[in-house]
Amino acid sequence: MPSDTLLISPLGGVGEVGKNSTLYQYDNHLLLVDAGVKFPEEALHGVDLVIPDFGYVTERPDDLIAILITHGHEDHIGAIPHLLMQLERQEPVPIYGAPLALGFIGVKLKEHGLREAADLRPIGPGERLPLGPFEAEAISVNHSVPDSLAFAIRTPVGLIVHTGDFKFDPTPVDGATTDADTFRRLGDEGVLALLSDCVRIEQPGWTPSERIVSEALGEILAKAPGRVIVTTFASNIGRLREVMRAGYQLGRRAAVVGRSMDENLKVARELGFLDLPTDVMIDLRSAQSLPPNQVVLLATGSQGEPTSVLSRMGAGDYRPLKILPQDTVVFSATAVPGNEETVAQSIDNLFRRGARVIYRALNERVHVSGHASREELKHMIELTRPRYCIPLHGEYRMLVLYRELAAEAGVPPESVFVMEIGDVLAFGPEGAERAGAIPSGSVLVDGLTIGGVTRVVLRDRRRLAADGIIVVSVAVDRETGELLSAPDVVARGFASPHDGEILEEARDRVERALRRVGQGEPEYGFLMDKIKDTLRLFIYEQTRQRPMILPVVTEV
Amino acid sequence: MPSDTLLISPLGGVGEVGKNSTLYQYDNHLLLVDAGVKFPEEALHGVDLVIPDFGYVTERPDDLIAILITHGHEDHIGAIPHLLMQLERQEPVPIYGAPLALGFIGVKLKEHGLREAADLRPIGPGERLPLGPFEAEAISVNHSVPDSLAFAIRTPVGLIVHTGDFKFDPTPVDGATTDADTFRRLGDEGVLALLSDCVRIEQPGWTPSERIVSEALGEILAKAPGRVIVTTFASNIGRLREVMRAGYQLGRRAAVVGRSMDENLKVARELGFLDLPTDVMIDLRSAQSLPPNQVVLLATGSQGEPTSVLSRMGAGDYRPLKILPQDTVVFSATAVPGNEETVAQSIDNLFRRGARVIYRALNERVHVSGHASREELKHMIELTRPRYCIPLHGEYRMLVLYRELAAEAGVPPESVFVMEIGDVLAFGPEGAERAGAIPSGSVLVDGLTIGGVTRVVLRDRRRLAADGIIVVSVAVDRETGELLSAPDVVARGFASPHDGEILEEARDRVERALRRVGQGEPEYGFLMDKIKDTLRLFIYEQTRQRPMILPVVTEV
To answer: Which of A481, B3, B288, B477 is the most buried (most CB within 10 A)?
Structure first.
């Protein structure tokens, strides 16, 4: 790469929602903004998490100056433990972020036994960090988690504005607005490139203020005849606090149920984000002893996660807490794409148990997004007046729509770069141009395995999931190749109306086929193929299914 | 069951969307309305279709007087072949429906080789069918497929109105309106019970007319610089015809790409539902030779189905047709719950290929529902003034919301029955009351197997999908129990960074454990358990995964 050139490459968060991470490089100095995870779609069988391929960084561990964190959402911080595990350095890399984001990261690192190995450095809006050839300035933005930041990154070739996730909320509940003045000032200074959130570009207009959610939840709390159980994203500290505050004013105490919400609120409280009277929060046992109309519960389960408190209450298998008559349950969230069915099921089950459930289709004010809608995204362009734009955080169609939007704000389409993961953009004295790609992609995490879920493993899992497996084992004489016993046929996950019969017939066919092979040391591979060929066709004809056929030949 | 009692039981379509089927019984006379399928959620690994459990009917095959079909959607007709296959009768059961629905059923029966075995009897609005103790009157309703019917079912205990799927469209494109006069007349006559569609009860107000879709698509066809490719549900004949009509007026010829759309349009044309000039429709090859702005293509893929034309065009592997610059693709549909991600992916891919894609988030007029919204559902109650209501076709929450809606229309909550599948409602001289349940549920179809996918099979498939399988085979001496060879360990779908190493270590551990067992005819089951126990813990500790461990012990 030529020197005097700034390279920018998204390692995630373009062409998909989630696992946001952006790499900045100048000479051999690397700077990473965010390191998020994506939760796998169902086709990724058994995969726990999807993280970016950090190979380019982990091959140059000592070139990494710092990691900047915009905010504490999983899709921006979730991959930090995995990145640190892969980063072989003497000294831990400094991770800069606002206190709440670092608090959430700390919990995550602790779970992975990495707390001591990390160098977390809190920063706040207005601070400027010298980072080798870069200088990063933190800027306050409003989002659905408090303490969110954008970064102005000064580089030798020009000023970059990296928005992170944001919206312009004129009446935020946690006091922090998006600092339009600073963005305008940066625009005055001259912005080379704007890297912008674009995930809600399909939504026209402006995203409503979080204030309307506080009001809606306040009305529900005031009217509800019994307990109110509110679920939302466990990181939405501002909203959770507003629920507790409103409940308290109406004579309701709050108890928190569910690990992730409990942990997040603990971190938030320690860091001073819950400025509430000390007797607002009580434990679940105390809440159970109060009259129902003096209680509000904050529970996990806004995405219908099967192990969450609300899903288990819906299924009736959460011992500490049952749905009572006159319970009101509020889903103060929308289903993240992919979770629509589990959320619907959870709502249905809660209705079945007799709860009154209020969700977005019935009252659209119970949730608003933390992301900028179309006009806000345009406003950000107008404030910063960048020469180039790179939309981040969106699926491919959103990136294309952002290019059209930018044109409306005066940035010509050829100055807006729709990137795919790993694409490199080079900023030199002449301007920006595409400069190939670096190794990149998705790495699948399953249990302790980072990357062990390969294409082959996934293909096998899909096959196994669809039609199961038939294992055929035979013992043959090592010397003569003679069959020493009748084949053994065992099936798992294989469906057939006359299961036993078909498997018996299958065994007979394999036995006949192998006897026919005759004597004289037939090759191992030959036997395996013979078994496979014999069964594959027979099973398909009988069932129209294609289970995996796994022959096991033991030579004795 | 007492005589002089009418029993009604939903075999599907309550507490879920899809596989609609309702059983009416008077004495030993059975009448079935619809027999639909549901497409499986991903958790039902490998399952092709979900159909109702028709066991109660198939145990009394000769008691079934007829099957009435409301309309030709899969969730109302898809299970007919499976029902007929299970119904052992001398004479085929008469199936009554409007011509288009029967046309679609005919195609389906042909695929299953059942065309000759079925007794299809076309009926039209206003016709009255004597059916043993019942009399069914067909009533025109408007829905997203032409030729839709509701039924007034006269029984010895009173008049039942079964709406099927409907909306009140004042300006329908296929000429058929919902016959409010007849519903009002039935109300005057006195309706014992209204069985009503309720699937869009979460939507306030009235569903917009199909007319606005025709207008929106017409505008798009007029403005598009190149080809226009429209996808919608393959059964939405009215909309497809309007696209062709509008295109023709603008000088565009229409070609159909994709099997299901092609087949449905063929049936529709034969039955006279496509009153268009004969030169409107051309084949794909002719379309390819025309200038792009003289072409409109109707293609399958509105749900992002991986094998559909549009999905394959997006993926770039549909040979006959590629996306061209200036192509406009219109998704004239919404994603059915569960399909959100595949639809989004398909749209993204089409953008990647350079198409301009128009979908509902960008232009909400490109699709409207065929189902009644809240106020229309109330209007139906007001027209028919039933003594009792049974909401059908909805997930559980929708049934509960319908009870609230009915109260607004003057039907008290205790007269609205929220049913689960198989629940029986008995209508006698005293009124309606719950009367237990009949055998019912979901039957899973996989390949040729109806019902072979059991709970155990599914549990195994889930396990296999999540973490794969490790097969351990050993040969032992039948007499002495002595190990005759080193164990063989094979894994499929199992992920581990040091795959080979772990499996080798696993083999050693099994061997050591079995050698330790010592001589003297150890029991077969004991060996199996020993292998499982040895590996389960080891693998979990090493990988935090729980693959299925399948020991195969061959006695020689």
So the answer is: A481
Reply yes or no on whether the pLDDT at B299 is more than 80. Answer: yes
CB nearest to B452's CB, from A43, A460, A497: A497
Does residue B554 carry a pLDDT above 90?
Answer: no
Top-confidence residue, B353 or B521: B353
Q: Which residues in chain B touch residue A499, judged by CB atoms under 8 angstroms apart?
A: 452
Please indicate whether, in this complex, the C-beta atoms of B543 and A347 are within 8 angstroms of each other: no
Q: Where are the alpha helices (DSSP H) in B61-126?
A: 74-77, 80-86, 99-111
How is residue A161 written in tokens? 């504005």
Nearest chain B Cα distance for residue A447, angstroms:
5
pLDDT of A512 reads: 87
Reply yes or no on whether A371 is catalytic.
Answer: yes
For residue A460, the chain B residues in CB contact (below 8 A) are 468, 492-493
Q: Which residues have CB under 8 Å from B430's CB, separation 6+?
A: none
Q: To the nearest whole angstrom, how far is the Cα of A329 from the nearest Cα of chain B?
A: 13
- By Cβ distance, the residue of A348, A474, A492 closest to B548 is A492
| Percent share of chain B, pLDDT over 90 | 79
User: Would you mind telling me the total number of residues written for chain B in this entry?
Assistant: 556
Q: Does A450 contact chain B (CB < 8 Å)? A: yes
CA distance linking residue B171 with residue B212, whole number of Å:
9
Q: What ranges in A36-79 are assigned the alpha helix state H? A: 55-58, 74-77
A496 close to B (CB below 8 A): yes
Catalytic residue of the set A82, A371, A393, A423:
A371
Q: Does A488 touch chain B (CB under 8 A)?
A: yes
Which pLDDT score is estimated for A514?
82
Asked if pLDDT for residue B186 goes beyond 90, the answer is: yes
Closest CA–CA distance from residue A15 to any residue of chain B (Å): 8
What CA–CA distance (Å, rounded) separates A43 from A77?
Answer: 24
E strands in A44-166: 49-52, 64-68, 94-97, 119-122, 128-131, 134-141, 148-155, 158-162
Cα B249 to Cα A402: distance, rounded to the nearest angstrom: 34
Single pTM value for the model? 0.92
Kind of pairing between the strands at B295-299 and B253-257: parallel
Q: Is B117 on the interface with A (CB under 8 A)?
A: no
C-alpha distance from residue B329 to each of A398, A506, B283 (Å): 16, 49, 19
**Secondary structure percentages of chain B, helix, strand, coil, to 5:** 35, 25, 40
Nearest to A527 by CA among A538, A511, A508: A511
Q: Map out the domains of chain A with their CATH numbers.
A: 6-205+369-450 (3.60.15.10), 210-366 (3.40.50.10710), 455-555 (3.10.20.580)
Instruction: List helix spans (H) across A254-395.
Output: 259-270, 284-289, 309-315, 340-352, 374-384
Between B524 and B112, residue with greater pLDDT: B112
CB contact under 8 A, A465 and B461: yes
What single letter denotes the amino acid at residue A31?
L
**The amino acid at A278:** T
Q: Which of residues 265-284 of B touch A (CB under 8 A)?
A: none
* Burial profile B19-57: b = 16 or more Cβ within 10 angstroms, e = fewer: bbbbbbbbbebbbbbbbbbbbbebebbbbbbbbbbbbbb
State whether residue B42 sits within 8 Å of chain A by CB. yes
Neighbours of B524 (CB within 10 A): 13
Tokens 């996990």, residue? A300
Helix and strand counts by DSSP (H, E) for chain B: 16, 25
Closest by Cβ to A497, choosing from B401, B449, B544: B449
- A298 close to A284: Cβ distance less than 8 angstroms: no
d(CA B466, CA B469): 10
Q: What is the mean pLDDT of chain A?
A: 93
Average pLDDT over residues A394-411: 97
Q: Per the CB < 8 Å rule, is A494 touching B457?
A: yes
